[in-house]
Amino acid sequence: MEPPETIIAGELVLRRWQLVWAGEATAAVRESLPELTPWLPWATAEYDADASRAFLETSIEEWAKGTTFNYGIFAPDGALAGGIGLITRMGPDVLEIGYWMRTAYAGRGYMTAAVEALTEVALTLPGIERVAIRHDAANAASAAVAIKAGFAEVERVPSEIGAPGETGTDVIRERRSTA
Ligand SMILES: CC(C)(COP(=O)(O)OP(=O)(O)OC[C@H]1O[C@@H](n2cnc3c(N)ncnc32)[C@H](O)[C@@H]1OP(=O)(O)O)[C@@H](O)C(=O)NCCC(=O)NCCS
Questions:
Q1: Is 171's C-beta closer than 6 angstroms to any atom of ligand 1?
Q2: Rounded to an integer, what distance in angstroms lies between the CA atom of residue 90 and that of residue 33?
Q3: Which atom of ligand 1 is nearest to the CA of 39?
Q4: How far, in Å, from the CA of 101 to the mean position of ligand 1?
């Protein structure tokens, strides 16, 4: 099971991460820290080029192992606008989607378009019956993206607090294959 390395999402292109984007990824994360830090444990004031390279190296290794498929999101102007990935950790028939958006590109419907396109692809992969999004109960922007992309709430679960905006309750939402 392996998704395509390039996915068209309306005006956006999702591309399997490459190490050459480490510099731009560092800049994108650093300038977005006020929006990312509340919800993402890795998005701290210490985030630097080494952290970015380590993330990209891990992403390349995990893609090869088939455990996580991470993409950079590229805007129509060619800039790196965010990140999105498919994660296999929830079980054999389900893929989880995680995401973050560069602040200068937020609020344009881009993440909704990226999630919709990646979900369509995920549901065509062999054995995949569900796609899930897990977000903190207080993360209203993430909830809005998931709802707009057609994900319905299935469960609320206790969760370890890893980032300062988190409440300790996660909402799990799902979209299922209609086939
Ligand atoms: C969640 C995130 C990816 C959304 O990216 P985006 O490109 O702005 O998403 P979209 O433009 O497609 O949609 C954003 C929606 O969130 C809504 N929104 C944004 N901020 C909000 C807030 N503080 N409260 C409520 N809704 C909010 C927008 O109004 C929009 O919904 P609408 O179209 O119904 O008005 C971005 O905010 C982000 O990177 N957040 C930090 C990281 C994160 O939380 N990742 C997910 C972890 S589960």
A1: no
A2: 27
A3: 44
A4: 8
- Does the beta carbon of 146 lie inside 6 Å of ligand 1? no
Are residues 141 and 99 in contact, defined by beta-carbon separation less than 8 angstroms?
Answer: no
Is residue 102 within 6 Å of ligand 1 at its C-beta? Answer: no
* Ligand 1 pocket, residue 24 CB under 6 Å: no
Ligand 1 contact via 142 beta carbon (within 6 Å): yes
**Cα distance between residue 16 and residue 71, in whole Å:** 4
- Tracing tokens 């409440």 back to the chain, one arrives at 167
> What angle do helix axes 22-31 and 49-65 make, rounded to 10 degrees?
120
- Domain boundaries, position 57: 6-176
Counting the structural domains of the chain, the total is: 1
Please indicate, yes or no, if residue 133 is contained in any of the structural domains. yes
Residue 171: which CATH number? Answer: 3.40.630.30
Domain membership of residue 1 (yes or no) is: no
Tens-binned pLDDT, residue by residue, of the chain (179 aa): 799 999 999 999 999 999 999 999 999 999 999 999 999 999 999 999 999 999 999 999 999 999 999 999 999 999 999 999 999 999 999 999 999 999 999 999 999 999 999 999 999 999 999 999 999 999 999 999 999 999 999 999 999 999 999 999 999 999 998 76
